[in-house]
Request: fold
Amino acid sequence: MPTPVITATDLVKRFGDFDAVKGISFEVAPGESFGLLGPNGAGKSTTMRMVGAVSPRTGGELSILGLDPNRYGPEIRSQLGVVPQSDNLDVELPVLQNLIVYGRYFGLPRALVKQRAGELLEFAQLTDKAKTKIDDLSGGMKRRLTIARALINDPRILLLDEPTTGLDPQARHILWDRLFRLKEQGTTLVLTTHYMDEAEQLCDRLVVVDKGQIMAEGSPASLIRRYSSREVVELRFGSARNASAAEQLAGVGERIEVLPDRVLIYADDGERALEAVRGRGLEAITSLVRRSSLEDVFLRLTGRSLIE
Amino acid sequence: MSAVEASVRAEGRSSRWLGSVFAGNPGAVMSRSWLATRSTNWLVVASGFLEPVLYLLSLGVGLGTLIGTVDTGGRQVSYAAFIAPALLATSAMNGAVMDSTFNVFFKLNFGKLYEGMLATPLGPLDVALGEILMALLRGALYGLAFMGVMAAVGLTLSWTALLALPALLIIAFGFASLGMGVVSFMKTFTQLDWIFFVLLPMFLLSSTFFPITVYPPAVRIVIECLPLWHGIELVRGLTTGVITPALLWHVVYFAGMVAVGLVLATTRLKALFLK
Amino acid sequence: MTTATTNDFDGPSTDASAAALRAALRPRRFGALYVLEHRLRAARQAWTSFVFPALGTPVLYLFAMGLGLGSLIRQGSGSVDGVSYLVFVAPALLTAAAFQTASEEFIFPIRVGFKWNPIFFGMNAAPLSPGQIIDGNVLATSVRVVLNGLVYFALMALFGAVPSGWGVLSVLAALLTALSFGGPLCAYIASLDKEASQETLVLRFVVMPLTLFSGTYFPLALMPVYLQWIGWISPLWHGTQLARDLTYGAGEPGWLVAVHLAYLVATFVVGWQLARRIAGKRLNK
Ligand SMILES: Nc1ncnc2c1ncn2[C@@H]1O[C@H](COP(=O)(O)OP(=O)(O)O)[C@@H](O)[C@H]1O
Ligand SMILES: [Mg+2]
Reply:
């Protein structure tokens, strides 16, 4: 593995007497697309802020581009592009000005910033909105503009905190497409998400975090292989009956999970498992056979679902 | 640039003064502020200078008729010439305080502007200085305009009035930096009211409309501790040409205020955003 | 599963209509009071913002203007309008404070309710009518002006600024001042939709000039004629003169007192009715 651009070792962040991040370790290689997958409150944003050199760590070691963020905040930030969880665009300035002004914060020459701003508007598909006020943009457009803004300094690492949370499906797909292009160009991406489909689409490698700790690490496919079966049967018996139905299903498939709204049966052959359910005389209100996902990995690791 | 190069450049910089809170680029924050001002209603910006002019017209003429002349530092001056420098200093204070408190309060608590800035190499001192310097620039323009009015109606009684402009800048600097430091502690609109509770008595009592010789000695000492009194006395000395060594003390007072304010503002921005 | 259910509101039912009619009785009658209650509750959340200025401002102004500036005027022209400067300026400070309160209360809460945090639309989605929403706001400001005015008056009396026994009625003059300016202001603010800093412009180009050129700190007659007209159209001048008549018997002719009264009442009624109509168009369009 080439020299990592980010190395975190036993990273800890404490707010008062609450540990938001409880000793996590990971490395990110240049050009890699790395994800932190976890539910709300897992400590993803806190970690991202430490990596972004705007939040001093409470304990452990952290090195970004070989530098310690406690000491080299401005230097590290000059090499990062940051897309925070909630947009913090400059609402007093129109779209294009947002990019130019932000570039100036890096001390970049005006001419260079102007040229890049034009290109980035193109990239963000916002060229025709150059003069629009921020308040008049849709959520997806704001997000794309925030990403364009994060690229104004041609960063070595792009940090994306929940890039598509709160967007409608179409806007998400447009955004994913843009991020793919960056990935293809070799930009190092570090992103957090609580959407398993996003993690599966965008991450080469990811860590599953919960309550400030890393539960597992690997590529999406390897995680699924390790922690889940190939397929899953989802059965809904009605909220009152799920638990009792599950009891009668003991032995079907490799493993059974009971959630408040459904029962999951993990099996390599979903259709056969479903046959077995019917064989026991149980008829679900709805039933569905699907491939395993990171959602199932998370459930296996924590006993809870990602989105509650 | 490679990671190693970044670290080499970084070595050079971090040895410099205030490495982690200052990137030496408050100019970027200022030009952002200038652009934002340009995109607001020009009438709002231009009318900022109206308030002291109206005060001068109303009170200078109306009360001037009732009062006649006033003694300042042994010199008899018209009532209008007495209040004009006070209005000038007060408007420097008001402008600086509004820019550094209300505007900053919104940016701190509602907008996320500073969060975005601090994700770049900019440090909290860049942000604080940039915002404050911009407020000063605006204040200087208003001050210049008002002094033009004063000169036009013959209320600048000495060439030393020229020095009132730099005096206004240091007054505004003092109020802006302290204002920004203080507002960073405020969380609710109700707390913002406290700013008015402080400004209003200072405005009414600090020898703005009448000399503090009308007070009993104990009250006088309290007034003489207030920053606005120092500001008014400084500007009044310069525009009326009553020059005494005491003027230097007023300058020292504001230099101290600037220092305290800047340290406070920077420390607080750091605590608020780099946590 | 598609089981048919019936409920009280299915189809035309005299019972349901009657229930609706009954339920709206109280809102129809007391709606404005509910809006008032809302405003009072909101005020309680930030009570310091109301109580401290109510106590602090009068003391400050009476002290600084009445006594401080007064001592300068004693050395100059001596008395003003036949009385000491304190007596002359105190009733004007009272009405000017009411004027100030009105300009705040009819700008920000109205702008907020229609636009920034559009609670008026929520009230209107409940059984309250647009007119009642305006009325409730007018009531809320009136309550504040009267309470502040009473405090102000008590402090004036304490400073020895009220020779006449009828003086306490000057609080009503203050209320009239506030409403006469507040009515039209409320109508204007209610009509705003776009963001163009109109509030700031109103404060700078209307409120401030009116405050300074309405004969508050000196008799209006001392102004050059080309500035006196500002006083004549200013609710603050009319209200202040009424208050002066009441606190020290400024001795204006009867017809002039009648003009003051008529002007104040007329501007309020016109502005207020306009505000109700604008609110109606805006909330129920
Ligand atoms: N500034 C802060 N002060 C106190 N607690 C915080 C602060 N920031 C985050 N937390 C807490 O730390 C935990 C992790 O938060 P966060 O990193 O935002 O989670 P995530 O981004 O994974 O949803 C949460 O319980 C949150 O309440
Ligand atoms: Mg988060």
Q: What stands out?
A: Chain C has one domain: 32-283. Chain C touches chain B at residues 46, 48-49, 52-53, 56-57, 60-61, 63-65, 67-69, 71-73, 75-77, 80, 85, 196-197, 200-201, 204-205, 208-209, 212-213, 217-218, 222-224, 227 (CB under 8 Å).
